[in-house]
Amino acid sequence: MPFSRALNAGLRAALAGSDRVLLMGEDIGPLGGVFRVTEGLQAEFGDRRVLDTPLAESGIVGTAIGLAMAGFRPVCEIQFDGFVFPAFDQITSQLAKQTYRHEGALQLPVVIRIPYGGHIGAVEHHQESPEAYFTHTPGLRVVSPSTPNDAYWMIQDAIASPDPVIFLEPKAKYWQKGEVDTSARALPLHASRVVRRGTDVTLVGHGAMVSVLLQAAAIAESEGTSCEVVDVRSLSPVDYGPILDSVRRTGRMVYAQEAPGFTSLGSEIAATVMERAFYALEAPVLRVSGFDTPFPPAKLEGAYLPDADRILEAVDRSLTY
Amino acid sequence: MTLPVSSPDPGTVRVLTADGSFAPTPAAEPYLALIDALSDAELEGFYRDMAVIRAFDVQATNLQRQGQLALWPPSFGQEAAQVGSARAARPQDHFFPSYREHVVARIRGVDPIDIIRVMRGLTHGGWNPFDPKNGNVHVYTLVLGSQTLHATGLAMGLAFDERSGTGDPERDEAVIVYYGDGASSQGDIHEAMVFAASYRTPQVFFLQNNQWAISVPVATQSRAPLYKRGEGYGMPSIAVDGNDVLASWAVTRLALEEARAGEGPRAIEALTYRMGAHTTSDDPTKYRTSEEEDSWRARDPIDRMRNYLLSRGASEAFFADVEAESAAVAEDIRIRTGELGGLETDAMFDHVYSDPHPLVEEQRQWFAGYEASFDGEQEAS
Ligand SMILES: Cc1ncc(C[n+]2csc(CCOP(=O)(O)OP(=O)(O)O)c2C)c(N)n1
């Protein structure tokens, strides 16, 4: 089923599973959200379980904090990546710190769903990848599914988590179809996963970038280079096990992400891999990123976003060491 | 589901009824002298502005459907509120639109192709508000409510520099900022009103209540008429029939004059209706009824003004001329959209900072070399 339907099914399961689960956000009711992820859920569960909120992101997250204090499990939808910033204060200064502030006496099981990333040719503020702001904030968990099956399970796991979870949904994937196994979850929420085996270079990324890595790996294969691909899935905490195992076998790693590279998730993972697997490395860990510019006008997104060619260029560079 | 507020309460300023008869509400009393002084040419100008922008808007919507634009936010139905407010300003005034005020921009001199370029994905803005040809119209922002704080800051600057409140209306400057009923829930707008009232800025907050924030009815944003919020911050606040161009003009005219004279900020709520989709990505059939849409179509701002002008004896030749101009503007924008070129990828690295930045420059160089490496391959093959 398509990624957006998988999310819809996961949300439906969570709503049906506990009447403490609430969805809240702009246009998520009759319209079903601008990406139709919540389609039909208000009709099914009523407007006190699926709330069309006033148009105020700080208000959505701030009241979700209070609702969580009252024993609910709110799932907030932010309409687009670029509109999370009005809520940034509530997320980083309040949501992330309540448990610490209360020395564990309070749990804040709030999920914040954010459609993020490019590839949809949109206008300003609609194509950004703000993950680093959140991974930089202690107290938040940050995850990003890249397949319909993960979308279905990870949203349920995020809702079940006692901690706040920033749930990043790669917009480019909403319409992509894939198998969903509703009978068994594949992996825990915070596990990374090898999605393709290979022996020469480890390619690592998250969200929409995973399929670009797979594309690059397929091209590399035809040119005689065998790439392993790891989907990070959990951006905070990062599950380093599969990444380090892979790098210890291949000796080389390339990280690809849509966000600007400077002080990014890829930078953090690259540094950690260099610390922990230094003697296994035959080349420095390389990063392929969006440029350190604002997300450009739509006509330039093809040049801005890392594509298979840019990843292969880094693979080639890695192999020259 | 609560239906949106639709019929103006008696406190609403309105001079033209839906069928175009001149029948002022009691609240319109203070504005009648201003309206009376309007010349036939000015009245016809209002109509012309509205009709031309609707033709442009229809054309832009079509261009989006043909894949020429990434997105289009139509102004369809809101022409009277926009034309009335824009024509009420003086040349030295400053405009902070949201993303739908196409006729405001046009009236002030912005070339509509500049708006098209934004929605085509060629730029995030690109025009200089302070270039005289752009009439102090600031660039659209898509982050709801942000611009109200910028407008307030600019208005504070005008007050601090004594560029307003000197008593010379020919020179004193004022600011008008546009936002919607949905946006009115954003914290930024509340903070803007606090600052504006505290510093008594020469400023008008112009809220277009078009009844819907995408799919969410105005009742979700406010249980009290939105114009009343201004009062709470300490500024005089007025509700106007936003489908009546004369009322919209007069109310804004007076509010701006008072603000520029140093009497502090004013808030206006224009009651109007978004007759089309929110943007070309929206599907209004999912959340509202065709009866509701029909009831508002009967209050169309352009038909209303047309009937009024006819009752005053406007000539067939005038309407024919407006029609010809509308068609010409629409055709011109179609042609010029087709002629818009692409972008050099290098443009991505421009203007990130005003001073050169080593990281960005390094990436610019790297990318140039990277792209050139492909040219080499193509030549070789
Ligand atoms: C801060 C922020 N949140 C969400 C959005 C997405 N969005 C764009 S327009 C819109 C509805 C705005 O409604 P309103 O303020 O009434 O203005 P209208 O579009 O009706 O003119 C929404 C939710 C946004 N642009 N900015």
Automatic annotation (TrEMBL), chain B:
E.C. number: 1.2.4.4
CDD domains: TPP_E1_PDC_ADC_BCADC
Keywords: Oxidoreductase, Pyruvate, Thiamine pyrophosphate
InterPro entries: Alpha-ketoacid_DH_E1_comp, DH_E1, THDP-binding
Pfam families the UniProt entry points to: E1_dh
Reaction catalysis annotation: N(6)-[(R)-lipoyl]-L-lysyl-[protein] + 3-methyl-2-oxobutanoate + H(+) = N(6)-[(R)-S(8)-2-methylpropanoyldihydrolipoyl]-L-lysyl-[protein] + CO2
Dehydrogenase E1 component domain sequence ranges: 48-316
Family the UniProt entry places it in: Belongs to the BCKDHA family.
Function: The branched-chain alpha-keto dehydrogenase complex catalyzes the overall conversion of alpha-keto acids to acyl-CoA and CO(2). It contains multiple copies of three enzymatic components: branched-chain alpha-keto acid decarboxylase (E1), lipoamide acyltransferase (E2) and lipoamide dehydrogenase (E3).
Full protein name: 2-oxoisovalerate dehydrogenase subunit alpha
Lineage: Bacteria, Bacillati, Actinomycetota, Actinomycetes, Micrococcales
